[in-house]
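Question thread 4412

I'm putting together a teaching handout and wanted feedback from people who do this every day. The idea is simple: show students a protein as raw sequence, then show them the structure tokens that encode its fold, then repeat with a second protein so they can compare. Below is the first pair exactly as I plan to print it.
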Amino acid sequence: MDYQGGKKFGQVKAKQENDLDSINTEYLDNDNYKEIEDLQERLQKYKKQFMEFDLNHSGDIDFMELKLMLEKIGQPKTHLECKKMIKEIDKTGSETINYREFLDMMFGSKNSVLRLILMFEEMAKQEKELKVKGPPPKRTIDELLKQTSGCAQ
């Protein structure tokens, strides 16, 4: 892998995105996935997630990329656990997770450990977004008294 930055990096990212978009198109055209709700949006979300995991932009998530990303989202795993997760998803025997395998995992009926972790992370992000930021709303003395008198009953 050439780690040149700038224009070359942009070209690598653009090629990867185009490759993943063509796979997304295959899934959109496939009758087996037509009944999935919000398929287009989910494919875009999974593409973004896959690109975040694929740190070296090789088109596959390898052992170290998986380990680093799990640590980043607060779910550190041992080497053995990461290898087991990859083995559970890898259909080609490459010891990596390609995008098709990633999508099959996310859309499949079988609950893999990695899929559960990713869904847990997504729920945690949504909860964080829902939390109210800033100071609590101002209340009058009457409201506070009503609240405390209701608790005493």
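The second pair follows. I'd like the answer to focus on this one:
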Amino acid sequence: MATECEGRKYDLIVFGVTGYTGKFVAEDIYSIQTSGRQTLKWAVAGRDEDKIKRVLQDLGIEGVDIIKADVNDVESIEAMCAQTRVIIDVVGPYIEYGEVVVKSCVSQKCDYVDITGETYFVELMISRYGEQAKEAGVYIVNYCGYDCIPNDMGVLILQRAFNGQLSYVESYMDPEVKVLNTGTWESILKGIRNYKQIKAFQRALDHQHPQPPDVDIPKRRSIFYSDVTNSWCYEFGSSDRACILTSARYRHKKYNIPMFNAKVYSVGSLLKIFGIVLMLFIIVPLNFTNFGFNLLRKYPALFTFGVFRKGGPNKAQLDRGSFNITIHGVGYSVDNTDKKKPDTSLRVKVRGAEPAYVATSMMIVQSALCLLDERANLPDEGGIYTPAAAFGDTNIVQKMEATGKVKFTIEQP
């Protein structure tokens, strides 16, 4: 485990505090500090010191140091990382701005958390810095927001409570979000543009990983009615499935727990689903041309029926936001010795506050605090981890629930 960083000036540095999510993260940490729940030495960082001062003033945050750091200036990023035990990185898209921070964390031996949902970025960091992080005793933990903590930790809870062997899980995601900021939109557009490169990279890595078992997950149409949620659903191409299976591989390798398969679906009305399909038919072809890409970036509200807007949601929209996730696990009971046909099931429900910013900021802050406070419960070696792999033996679920912004519940079908 990394011990060299324990005497550093700061416990935490929030990199990207002027961004929409960064403001929520800073408010969360300041609330923890001023309420007396925990004493933290922390700072905020970014490239524009004057803008950071204005943001802190608007948020009513006082007495916090400001560090100038720019992803285009590697020395400034290294200097930032050398001063702290943990970096909270909320500067996206990560495929463009994340690597220099990960690399600097490894070289300067400080831990790292982010809220990426960019699977390609995560796989790329594992291939380039996974072994280096392990040798340095550094913990790099991706996916520490709504992408993908609720699903990743929810599946872990389900697997531990499952009376038998898990065969497959189906996750049904139902976020209630009216407006999103354009930073998320940028990441989506760049993910679509990199799709072919991402798939080729993933295929090259497939032979290195234990594969999910060839089980008969119920075959679903592109749009189907689910008897699990009693609603219309469609398969959701999110990072959650990749994260869930990466965590499963970790448990398979470390504890010899059998692999399982996974699918992730999004829940919605038929009108909502057809609206998304229509939007994708317009966005995807446009996005593969430079003219279309620039047009989509310039007018996000026009192409997303007002969902993505500059400035993000207002307070009323945030207060009305929420999410519900139903994780349905199916497998073999302890008496099912031949394991030819699954015969038992269990569910975990995850409910929470507005997912994109309110819940996400809480989740990444609690992830960072786990790296600070529960090092004895982290994996024996440093490396690049998913949340369930890094925090599976910590109290992160209880700590998240204590904030009132998320709740995990085990339910019988």
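Top answer:
Good format. For the second protein you could add a caption like this: The first strand starts at residue 10 and ends at 15. DSSP finds 17 helices and 16 strands in the chain.
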